[in-house]
């Protein structure tokens, strides 16, 4: 039993792996006879497709990867559309909605992969979660979401409302997540930068600074005294020590003190000087004139602790938002894919009724042509499905005439789609 389960898991893993980014699928449909049951005719079509070397082995893969039935409701269980005029309108509307959902779906795909390069795309539908190929292989109309008793136009209106809300929610949550990341970046330690580029709060930490409340403290703050931090370029220490006491009035003599072991890779060193507050601005100006870097910094252990807590809270918030957005992308992509396949099914239904006539009796399938072999696959499909291509009104006329509006005409209904188009790094 365990060996069988393991073999099944390996086959499924290989099947998913073989599906490449950019792989194209075609949903095709042919008319069935109106005066008798069409199930046997559908099976006959499928058997013919599977026996065609060009179609069944289109990608040099096992039969598990197509062709498959794409079970669009027809016959007595068909979709509701109302009048012929409704069908004509639906042709244009569904094509527009198809394009919109396509765009949203692939944007979600890109965002999901940017968030998680190992993103696992699975479709959750009708209480089951499956890899996309398994979902497509066993696709069925979702009666709970889109009841066939409801007209197509109402189903697609509801469908687009849901998809647009998914898209809006994904955009809003992404903006919130990016805002948290920006805040984290603004407060983050600037590791690897030299002293002039780092925030001194991350350099002069409580474990570095001596503050015992006496005259030897690294920072002196009183009613009249303050402490200034200065960054000296390599080799300027002696010049600074000779001149700093005269760079402004009221600088405390012998108050220059170097913070040990804090020199950066460029040789810059960090010093502090104590002076009267009234001397601070003049001292800073003299430092700038001599190309010493003065940093506005007031040491506070409490401020350091607050910043540390704030950083930890932001880091936790970013992690929570990451998982929230990741789960949202995963669910939104799945729901958008389910919606997209149902739009495809609606389009197949509408095009088949217009092509093959009433009552709706047709057979639809999914095939995946091998890259570079599309022409051969089209010819094989025409040979197999073309006999049902002229069942509807004006079928023979259309088959014998030229394609209109620069669209290529096939003697069967055909819709192409590409589930995944984002390359992973």
Strand order in the largest sheet: 2-9-1-10
Stretches with pLDDT under 50, minimum 5 residues: 4-17, 58-62, 391-406
**Compute the gyration radius: what is it?**
35 Å
How far apart are the termini?
38 Å
What's the mean pLDDT score? 86
Strand content: 5-15%
Shape estimate: rod-shaped
Structural category is alpha+beta
Helical content (DSSP H or I, runs of 4+): 40-55%
Count of strand segments: 10
**Mind describing the biggest β-sheet?**
4 strands, antiparallel
Report on the architecture of this protein:
A hairpin with a 2-residue loop joins strand 3 and strand 4. The chain has 425 residues and is an alpha+beta fold. It starts with a helix and ends in an 8-residue tail after the last strand. The chain has eleven helices and ten strands. The radius of gyration is 35 Å and the shape is rod-shaped. Strands 2-9-1-10 form a four-stranded antiparallel sheet. Strands 6-7-5-8 form a four-stranded antiparallel sheet, with helices on one face. Helix 4 packs parallel to helix 6 and helix 6 runs antiparallel to helix 9.
